[in-house]
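for the writeup, i need someone to sanity check this before i put it in the appendix. the sequnce is what the collaborator sent (i think, or maybe the updated version? ugh). structure was predicted straight from it, no edits. if anything looks off just tell me and ill rerun, i have time this weekend
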Amino acid sequence: MARLISFVAAAMVVVTSFIAFAGTAAAHERRTVGPYQFVVGWLNEPAYVGLMNGLDLRVTDTRVTPAKAVEGLEKTLTVDLQTGGLAPLPLTVTARFGTPGAYNGYAMPTATGTYVFHIRGKVESLDVDEKFESGPGRFGDIEPTTALQYPNKVPAADELNGRLGDIQSSIDQTRILAGIALAMAIILTFRVFLGRRRG
């Protein structure tokens, strides 16, 4: 009986792993690039702001059946991550241990929204220059973590930056007003002083 329970438990773990993997793969973009298929997305889907994540890249050669994993691309491809028109972040592309043709590139997104993986270099003899952008029907945008937080809600980095920007703007305005008030006080004091000397 104990063996049967162990077997059922092991089978459930395997089935759950396949379901989880299939869900992740479904949230990726598949694209034919020459004779190769690229599958691109986040390592963890859904992808949340402020949590470690990164590129999940898989490349197969479709000229053979079944498609063959393409290895060694960590030496020939470069990947930049970009969002919101900001300067791109170069990712370190590494081969995924135990999964031929799969590659990682780690990052921690600190703002919500749309992200782009720009992949350049060579796949065997083919020159590659492809942009994969998050969005509907591809892979997920970076989402806020607010709905997941319990018991306290913690603002995301981009929200904190916005609040700090508002505070800085208020401080700058206050400094300007204080400078004007000081200048007026000096002028009034000088006029009073001149008026007394004349009197």
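Strands lie at 29-33, 36-42, 53-61, 68-69, 77-83, 89-91, 94-95, 102-107, 115-123, 126-133. The helical segments are 2-26, 157-198.
thx in advance!!
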